[in-house]
Give the backbone structure.
Amino acid sequence: MPVHSIPDSDPDETSLAVHQPRLWSDNGWTARVIKNEDDEGWAVAMYRAGQSEPALVGPWTMGRDKKNPKPLDTGAFNTLVKTASEVIRRHEQQLHALLHKQVDVSTDQGRVCVTLDIVPDEFEPYALLAGVLVAGLVWRARAQTPASTRARLAELQSRIRPHFLFNTLNSAIALVRAEPARAETLLEDLSELFRSVLADPAQDVTLAQELQLAERYLAIEQVRFGPRLRLHWTLDPQADAARLPPLILQPLVENAVLHGVEPSAAGADVRISTQRRGERVVIKIANTVPEGTGQTGLGLALDNVRERLVLMHDLNASFRSALVDGQYLVRLEVPA
């Protein structure tokens, strides 16, 4: 198979036609005859205007002298353009088939047909349709009543109440004895946490409110861990209006502290970012893990967050987590 080299000049630098034995450019296409790196023959690379990578690279015929390549001409160029265009057309068809799926699900209430536009991301460069999505479609078709959904949300929220409050209260007690002035600020943060926990679980909140609560929680944990807890915030104000179940971010930042900072003598970096992408909002929480693995848990907090997102936004929300390059990353996506 021939190996192509990078052209000496960008094929799209000029719109003028070029008709040379080894370089032919016309009608938005450029053909360049190149020497194989193994020095065993010649190849031709076809570039479409505006593209830095060739659409097609293939072997090229040796000339009559058996040393130089056959010169390019109009007939050969037109054949190469036709072949390269067909390669691009087939590639685009394959990519479209890969990223656009249709699912039919039969349920007691009838048949559900869903067309999916799949977007590549950092977890799966070419995301494949998951069986859990089909299960979610069936669940959606059977549709729980609003009353039972609210009851389930309240139940899930109540599970996370005692856990972090006991931890933060212990921090407050220790600080009251050592630094009374700082203890006052901490107790104000703790009061706000209590107010949020006791709020009506059926009422949704904005992303901005959730971030404020996370900041208060992490301010308390900063007292416990000092420089071992290194926070990095990258926030998009245009994402602040997204609606979320209450206390959806707090268990995620608590997990980052519990499994990233607490078990490591050197501490950990915790990164929180938000970004609006069109009609979607992406929220990411990441933490470095000790020795590349981190302390493992039962995943109850993650299951809790995932289920509450589904109860509120159904298929309009997504939740994923993975260990990526020494960091544990949680990614939420909700309507803007």
Q: What stands out?
A: Confidence is low (pLDDT under 50) at residues 1-14, 124-135, 141-145. The domain at 144-335 is CATH 3.30.565.10 (Heat Shock Protein 90). The first helix runs from residue 74 to 99.
